Amino acid sequence: MTGWRFRQVGKDNWAPATVPGTVHTDLLATKQIEDPLYRDNEMKLQWIGKTDWDYETTFAVAPATLQRSHLELVFKGLDTYADVTLNDASILHTDNMFREWRVDVKPQLKVGENRLRIRFRSPLNEVAELPKRAGYELFAINDEQAMGIIGDKGPVLSPYTRKAPYHYGWDWGPRFVTSGIWQPVQLEAWDAVKITDFHVVQRQISAQAAQLQLVVEYEGAASAGGQQATLVLENLGPDGKAGQRLEQTVTLQPNRHEVTADLRINNPRLWFPAGYGPQSLYSFKAQLLQNGKPLDEAKTRTGLRSLQLRREHDAYGKSFEFVVNGIPIFAKGANWIPADIFQTRVTPARYRHLLQSAKDCNMNMVRVWGGGIYENQIFYDLCDELGLMVWQDFLFACSFYPGDEAFMSNVREELTYQVRRLRDHPSISIWVGNNENEIAWQEWGFPVKNGPHRLAVWSNYLKLYRDLIPTVLKAQDPDRPYWSSSPSADFEDIAGSQANGDMHYWQVWGGTAPISDYEKQIPRFMSEYGFQSFPDLKSVALFTKPEDWDIASPVMKEHQRSAVGNPRLKEYLLRDYKEPKNFASFLYVSQVLQAQAIKLSAEHLRRNRPRTMGSMYWQLDDCWGVASWSSIDYYGRWKALQYYAKRFYSAFLVSPHEEGDQVRFYVVSDRTSAVPASLQVRMLDFNGKVLFKQSASLQVEPLTSKVYLEISKDKLLKGQDIKKVVLACDLQANGTTLSTNTHYFALPKEMTLPKTNVSATWARTTDSTYQVTLKSTALAREVYLSLAQGDGFFGDNYFDLLPGETKVLTFKSEGATSLDELRKRLVVRSLTDAF
């Protein structure tokens, strides 16, 4: 539907609205507010979430349409408390933004113009009363994890409402509490029958055959009872060629019914996670015909693969690994949060940029965090196409939830709708009950835990995650793994156990533990860990003025989503680095620090394969334009961590590691077959003098982490000052570099890094693509390339340039730029320039 307008309730200030959209984006588009993300505007716009809003449109109904047997208004998503009228007749009241709402409106419709109005009640005002109705509050009060406090800082998250938790906050403080029509609204017409669902059940999948069951659900009108129809089922293979066609006669019945048909595909082309094979996708079509005329049709697409969450007892406890098509997959990825606080601003191009960036950096999994939203269809379509496995949380996070029948019934409808919507996506690899609720009960400061309602709250927890969700999944998607919480051992051990289940680790950053403590954690699967940094200056300049360029300024504090953020980031930085010389340098070093911290953890986790089988850092993207844990900033720029991830998540990883008096050289392989390779180890001084050199021929074993070389530190260093040397590792096969790495024996602030003069030579390869060749006479650490003016993308960045060696990389320009201009605009920064 089009032609929407909106107003603040009680005022006659109607203005054009965009649907799907939100109140905030409509206010911005009609110039009633300034950019909510600019400087401290956020604080000036809190009134929006406390206000009621009207949306309305008119649409024409033709006489022929009104003659149809059934006319339904379908609301794909209303955020959140909405009263809907059609031609002044009340037709719907909603209280869940994650449900589809359908209303039979034939009695209210008329020929000609029809007026549809939706009044959105303030979520803040609504939520304020809900704890009183429940009789007790379900909030956490643990400092930085303070989700749900009602007071001067506003409600950060409410467990009483089915609304995106991140709308209520991001660890701390008032936020943008949205309302609006965030998914499409449409009028659907049908007569005798309509197909309400079409689903492909993968009974048994192998390289030899795929045994499938096609399930068609239809709703028949009362008048259709006993009528005959023909169900036609077809499949279209990944090559676009038509496959099998099945036909069967169906005797239609009133209400909802299922019709099933078995289908075997010989020698199927299987779907694999990224890095393990192709992402083959089959399309299926179901059509109901009567006397050769179509009554209704439905389509779906899926990838054929076997999927298992393997949990077997071993020497370390109990394994936790995803097995796809018989291959144990080490999950390499990041957590995904909504890509914008105003979800409808996330374009298909932005989804593709973020998810393609994940694949380009050798990721094979993303975790859809339970504090956000069930993502839009394009997100899952792209994950299917790119081979990104999806760890899908249900949307319960960091709190406890009511257990009354009204709430449970509402959630049951939500779960059923979302599971049915998403279950044919091969990328979805696990359903997870919630984010951190179980560990919150064990470790966080919940007053209710020790109060008179303790048993009721825990009983409600079990009712939701042990009973209700598994019951829905058994009916709708029984073959996909389910996990009750993240982190959890699924009631077999304490949440976050390193012997069983998955783990979130936040003592680094969330506490004040040293970064080296990452290496003390050897979980079965690390599903969340993270470290903050700032965006670079070009991004910061988009939401600040130059007078704000100090991490202690009020504006920079507002653009921080951690209660302890800026001081803690500086504290960690000064442990390893000298004080940066200015604001821009602080931003740059903060990114290097973040990347180094996550590199240390990610390499450690990969070295411990198969004991550990997953590394999912927090987080890939950012929704605010702030200092955050993301590896890609809000404006789409890769931070140092994203470039680092491309290296530490590569299919082959060479990882030198100090262990006692030895340096052990691990090689990790995600390949399914052995690969002959050569490993070269060199110790250099900062001017390029080779102090030690050793090579080894390897047979890199498949799907393993193994020490292939071990050298004593004394032999490597030969009495050299550890503050003046770098260890360089190079893994090659058939002349192709598989992995490189560097290792330092002293902290950056203890080292005497040389002044560098990096030369750059440019060459054009296409109209918009260039090749840049870099060289330095001395070691240049953390080389960062950017343009003083304009933008583009460097194929590599934040790397160590070894003395006397060349580095060749690509640059893609965002606009037509001459070579002379690029030479003038290129800015090369290294670590020595920051102090």
Please specify the SSE layout and strand pairing.
Blueprint: E1 5-8, E2 15-16, H1 23-29, H2 41-44, E3 53-61, H3 63-66, E4 70-75, E5 78-79, E6 81-86, E7 89-95, E8 101-104, E9 112-120, H4 123-134, E10 180-181, E11 185-190, E12 193-205, E13 209-220, E14 228-236, E15 242-251, E16 255-266, E17 282-290, E18 293-302, E19 307-310, E20 313-314, E21 317-318, E22 321-324, E23 327-329, E24 331-336, H5 348-360, E25 365-368, H6 377-386, E26 389-393, H7 405-422, E27 428-432, H8 437-443, H9 454-476, E28 482-483, E29 503-505, E30 526-529, H10 537-540, H11 554-558, H12 565-576, H13 583-607, E31 614-617, H14 640-648, E32 652-659, E33 662-669, E34 675-685, E35 690-700, E36 704-712, H15 713-717, E37 725-733, E38 736-743, E39 759-764, E40 769-775, E41 780-787, E42 792-794, E43 799-801, E44 806-813, H16 819-825, E45 826-829
Pathway: Glycan metabolism; N-glycan degradation
Catalytic activity: Hydrolysis of terminal, non-reducing beta-D-mannose residues in beta-D-mannosides
Organism: Hymenobacter cavernae
Question: Could you characterize what this model shows?
Answer:
Its EC number is 3.2.1.25. It is found in: Secreted. This is Beta-mannosidase B. Belongs to the glycosyl hydrolase 2 family. Beta-mannosidase B subfamily. The chain is of the alpha+beta class and 835 residues long. The protein folds into five domains: 182 residues, Galactose-binding domain-like (Jelly Rolls), CATH 2.60.120; 112 residues, Immunoglobulin-like (Sandwich); 342 residues, TIM Barrel; 99 residues, Immunoglobulins (Immunoglobulin-like), CATH 2.60.40; 76 residues, Immunoglobulins (Immunoglobulin-like, Sandwich), CATH 2.60.40. The chain is 20% helix and 34% strand. A hairpin with a 2-residue loop joins strand 20 and strand 21.
